[in-house]
């Protein structure tokens, strides 16, 4: 049995700009909200939401030579969590991608692979040794967060029914996660 008193639920980038109608919408992204809210009601030690929080001229934006449309600008509606996401269980927020010259897919490290977001220190300070990861987008930020969690020696689970990717077929990315030590669990495991 999983000891949720030593576990954290990490909600990755469940923000308006990644939902249908948003600037960088993940297809069917809103379909995870019921599962995410159900997970967040479990007695985790912490429920931590990551949040893309970009300056207006962020390096990831296509207008700055990056791969993505303008999205999740700090303080904008697009950067906000959706109303349908229950915010009451969230105990901490980790903002990432906050530096203009560097992006951050992972909730743990910026893409330079050296700059910490503070998530690892927060988890260690809370005596957490197990994380459950869900959110958007499975094939980018969820995967990066889960793999960094494994790299930081956390027991790491991903709940596929509480994730959606930009790619419609998630089989290859889920296999990659399993090969790297991530366990795939269903909602009823918690």
Automatic annotation (TrEMBL):
UniProt keyword terms in alphabetical order: Hydrolase, Metal-binding, Pyridine nucleotide biosynthesis
Family label: Belongs to the isochorismatase family.
Pathway(s) annotated for this protein in UniProt: Cofactor biosynthesis; nicotinate biosynthesis; nicotinate from nicotinamide: step 1/1
Keyword Repeat: no
Enzyme class of the recorded protein, top EC level: hydrolase
Entry-linked Pfam families: Isochorismatase
UniProt-recorded name of the protein: nicotinamidase
EC annotation from Swiss-Prot or TrEMBL: 3.5.1.19
Classification of source organism: Bacteria, Pseudomonadati, Pseudomonadota, Alphaproteobacteria, Acetobacterales
Organism of derivation: Gluconobacter cerevisiae
PANTHER family: LD05707P, PYRAZINAMIDASE/NICOTINAMIDASE
InterPro entries in UniProt: Isochorismatase-like_dom, Isochorismatase-like_sf, Isochorismatase_Nicotinamidase
Domain Isochorismatase-like span(s) in chain numbering: 7-174
């Amino acid at each position: 049995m999983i000891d949720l008193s030593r576990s954290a639920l990490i909600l990755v980038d469940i923000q308006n700009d990644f939902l249908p109608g948003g600037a960088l919408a993940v297809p069917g992204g809103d379909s995870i909200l019921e599962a995410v809210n159900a997970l967040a009601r479990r007695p985790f030690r912490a429920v931590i939401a990551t949040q893309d929080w970009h300056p207006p001229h962020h390096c990831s934006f296509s207008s700055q030579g990056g791969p993505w449309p303008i999205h999740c600008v700090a303080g904008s509606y697009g950067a906000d969590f959706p109303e349908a996401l229950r915010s009451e269980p969230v105990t901490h927020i980790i903002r990432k991608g906050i530096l203009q010259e560097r992006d951050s897919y992972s909730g743990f490290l910026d893409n330079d692979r050296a700059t910490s977001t503070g998530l690892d220190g927060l988890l260690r300070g809370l005596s957490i040794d197990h994380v459950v990861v869900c959110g958007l987008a499975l094939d980018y930020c969820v995967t990066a967060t889960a793999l960094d969690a494994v790299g930081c020696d956390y027991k790491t689970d991903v709940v596929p029914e509480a994730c959606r990717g930009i790619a419609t077929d998630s089989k290859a990315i889920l296999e990659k996660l399993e090969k790297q030590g991530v366990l795939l669990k269903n909602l009823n495991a918690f």
